[in-house]
Amino acid sequence: MIVLRSPFSNSSAIDNFFDELTDPVQLPYWRDADHSSFNFSDTVGEIINNESKFSVQVDVSHFKPEDLKIELDGRELKIEGCQESKSEQGYSKRSFSRMILLPEDADLTAVKSAISNDGKLQIEARKKANSSRSIPINFVAKH
User: Which residues form the SHSP domain (predicted)?
Assistant: First the structure.
């Protein structure tokens, strides 16, 4: 027989409620899981935007390179990852999508990417050459 009671009806019930939460037998299966394995690509890593380049790093360590796609539409850089696996135990799917707007002075024809052995995706674009330059003033003496 199961007896339902409000855990908040009195202070001893609240204490019992929290004791039940910390009882190792009743903890949810995911409590002791490695939660870092679920935190894939949740944020964009280091971003560099200086005079010479724009660079962004994304952790894609949970994805194979063939599971990734990078597209550039104008200045919009879209990074996507999708991984599906089927087994006797079931089906799982991981995916992420990030959109980054490149700076106006980024050379869109020079965007390149590389992935490291530890799963860090680096996307880089050099900056356009500054078209302004100093023009020296020559002194011309009158004769």
Answer: 35-140
How far lies 43's CA from each of 47, 59, 99, in Å?
A: 11, 8, 11
Domains of the chain plus CATH, in order, are 40-127 (2.60.40.790)
Residue 60: CB atoms within 10 Å: 21
Query: What tens digit of pLDDT does each residue of 3-17 get?
Result: 555 444 455 555 555
Q: Which residue has the tokens 């050459």?
A: 129
Question: Which three-class secondary structure state does DSSP give residue 5?
Answer: coil
Taking only Cα atoms into account, the Rg of the chain, rounded to an integer number of angstroms, comes to: 28
What does the pLDDT look like over 106-140, one tens digit per residue?
999 999 999 988 888 999 999 987 766 788 888 88
* Full-model pTM: 0.59
